[in-house]
């Protein structure tokens, strides 16, 4: 970074030629003489503004991250007696833009949260703020999250904190200094919300969606030996695991899977054959939690990658960074002790974590939706059209109102259900919460649909452009459907909610 000096506006005004071009952005001076030739928006546009204050022009066309990235190279000083008006967020800092954070973090009271949740949110956000530039690059280039990044997230306790409270946290270091015994479902909710705020949906699923659903069957039903080996390896980011259930023939209708597992004559092994589709992280996972049918029915196996397993990348709507795969198992030999739970009881193993997975999806989708609301609020405030800011148009205020009202409603329901999870033993949760969680997921993804729609109209052409001001909105509107389909489709969630309620419908109730 060049040594910073203090200039007057008159001094800067003299640097207004092609070879000697300085500009002022928010009280700071940038020497763009050399950069102008490389400027993605064109050189002439910059040279014409040489010597001037271009703050409004800059913020009308660039995200703040552009300035953060280029300042170390281009910033040469500040303007005498002027202080910056635009705040550059510090990693881990929470936003003060209205509705950019859940209400507790905007200064409202809550019966649910305490200082440990705040410390946790800030610590985990700081970690993601630091990796965001690399995440955006990887999302764009379609590269997988590196093993080093997994190890880093593992060491910091980020991976462990996406799986809820439980014995798997024993001895783990967690973000914000949270002790494993005080970790609850609210910490987990925060972890998923923060992950999805990254603004790089494929990459986000690349670092979170495989083990979040692939590991719970092991620590809920695996043998002690399997747990002792696999759980620490995965939580510390040394190995990667995914859940391989869905097939070209079976999605939400799990019972129709065709992958088979045949016991060998000596009874010691099973031979697995079949295909799996839409397996998030499958392309780079070391381990697979696989559902297959034995003579006793659906059974779940722990399978290690070998030469008889082929994983092919599927081109989905988001980045290949998620490693979404089509997997072929051809005569894959697995020891009988790798059965997770009991032979023939795989359906129970699969269903056991389903509600938990759905709440996690709700947290992730509310986190991503909130980041979009923040971007829309900022954009509406800084974008000028027909001589006015967008926010000065009633139609734009109405769209923001609609987005915020819907998001706040589902966030409050999510917090209420999370509270029930904190207070109920797991089996009571399964009985009482499966229906409400189904309805919540249905509503959360309906809201994300509406938010995507309104955000597109607010951002216009930028909402359909992968780079620049609307980058996050473009990614959101292209990928929000993942939440509406994965973990149980909207239709199935809505139906489950009502069918569960009917189980408790009082026979004597008449209109
Ligand atoms: C320090 C100063 C500046 C830097 C580092 C910079 C950098 C960039 C970068 C990286 C992009 C590509 C953005 C993206 O697609 O994500 C861009 C685009 C652009 N820049 Fe700049 N820029 C600067 C100043 C300015 C100024 C003063 C103007 C004048 C109005 C300007 C006009 C544009 C335009 C018109 C685009 C294309 C925007 C679009 O495609 O919608 N830039 N700039």
UniProtKB/TrEMBL annotation:
Its required cofactor(s), as named, are:
FAD
Taking every annotated instance into account, which residue ranges of this chain make up the domain Cytochrome b5 heme-binding?
4-80
Q: Which GO terms describe its biological process?
A: fatty acid beta-oxidation using acyl-CoA dehydrogenase
What keywords would UniProt list here?
FAD, Flavoprotein, Oxidoreductase
Return the GO cellular component terms, semicolon-separated: cytoplasm
PANTHER family documented for this protein = ACYL-COA DEHYDROGENASE FAMILY PROTEIN (AFU_ORTHOLOGUE AFUA_6G10880)-RELATED, MEDIUM-CHAIN SPECIFIC ACYL-COA DEHYDROGENASE, MITOCHONDRIAL-RELATED
Q: Which family does it belong to?
A: Belongs to the acyl-CoA dehydrogenase family.
Protein name in UniProt: Cytochrome b5 heme-binding domain-containing protein
């Amino acid at each position: 970074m060049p040594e910073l000096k203090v200039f007057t506006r008159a001094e800067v005004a003299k640097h207004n030629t092609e070879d000697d071009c300085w500009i002022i952005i928010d009280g700071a001076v940038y020497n763009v003489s050399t950069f102008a030739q490389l400027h993605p928006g064109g050189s002439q546009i910059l040279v014409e503004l040489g010597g001037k204050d271009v703050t409004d022009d800059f913020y009308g066309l660039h995200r703040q991250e552009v300035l953060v990235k280029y300042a170390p190279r281009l910033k040469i000083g500040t303007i005498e007696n002027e202080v910056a008006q635009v705040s550059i967020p510090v990693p881990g800092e929470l936003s003060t833009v209205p509705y950019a954070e859940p209400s507790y973090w905007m200064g409202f009271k809550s019966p649910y949260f305490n200082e440990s949740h705040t410390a946790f949110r800030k610590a985990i956000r700081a970690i993601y703020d630091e990796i965001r530039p690399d995440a955006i690059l990887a999302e764009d280039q379609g590269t997988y999250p590196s093993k080093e990044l997994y190890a880093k997230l593992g060491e910091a306790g980020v991976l462990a904190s996406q799986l809820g409270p439980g014995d798997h946290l024993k001895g783990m270091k967690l973000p914000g200094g949270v002790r494993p015994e005080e970790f609850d479902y609210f910490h987990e909710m925060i972890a998923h919300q923060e992950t999805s705020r990254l603004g790089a949906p494929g990459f986000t699923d690349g670092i979170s969606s495989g083990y979040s659903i692939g590991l719970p069957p092991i620590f809920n039903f695996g043998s002690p030996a399997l747990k002792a080996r696999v759980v620490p390896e995965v939580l510390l980011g040394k190995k990667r695991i995914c859940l391989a259930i869905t097939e070209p023939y079976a999605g939400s209708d799990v019972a129709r899977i065709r992958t088979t597992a045949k016991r060998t004559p000596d009874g010691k092994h099973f031979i697995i054959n079949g295909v799996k589709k839409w397996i998030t992280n499958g392309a780079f996972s070391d381990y697979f939690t696989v559902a297959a049918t034995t003579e006793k029915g659906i059974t779940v196996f722990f399978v290690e990658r070998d030469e008889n397993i082929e994983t092919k990348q599927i081109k989905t709507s988001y980045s290949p960074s998620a490693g979404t795969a089509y997997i072929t198992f051809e005569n894959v030999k697995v020891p009988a002790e790798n059965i997770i739970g009991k032979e023939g009881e795989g359906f129970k193993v699969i269903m056991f974590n389903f509600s938990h997975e759905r709440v996690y999806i709700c947290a992730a989708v509310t986190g991503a939706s909130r980041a979009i609301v923040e971007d829309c609020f900022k954009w509406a405030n800084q974008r000028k059209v027909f001589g006015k800011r967008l926010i000065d148009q009633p139609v734009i205020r109405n769209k923001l109102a609609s987005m915020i009202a819907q998001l706040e409603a589902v966030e409050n329901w999510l917090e209420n259900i999370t509270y029930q999870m904190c207070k109920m033993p797991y089996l009571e949760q399964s009985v009482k919460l499966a229906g409400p969680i189904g309805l919540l997921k249905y509503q959360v993804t309906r809201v994300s649909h509406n938010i995507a729609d309104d955000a597109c109209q607010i951002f216009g052409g930028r909402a359909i452009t992968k780079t620049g001001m609307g980058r996050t909105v473009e990614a959101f509107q292209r990928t929000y459907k993942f939440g509406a389909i994965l973990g149980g489709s909207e239709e199935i969630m809505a139906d489950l909610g009502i069918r569960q309620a009917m189980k408790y419908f009082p026979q004597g109730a008449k209109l």
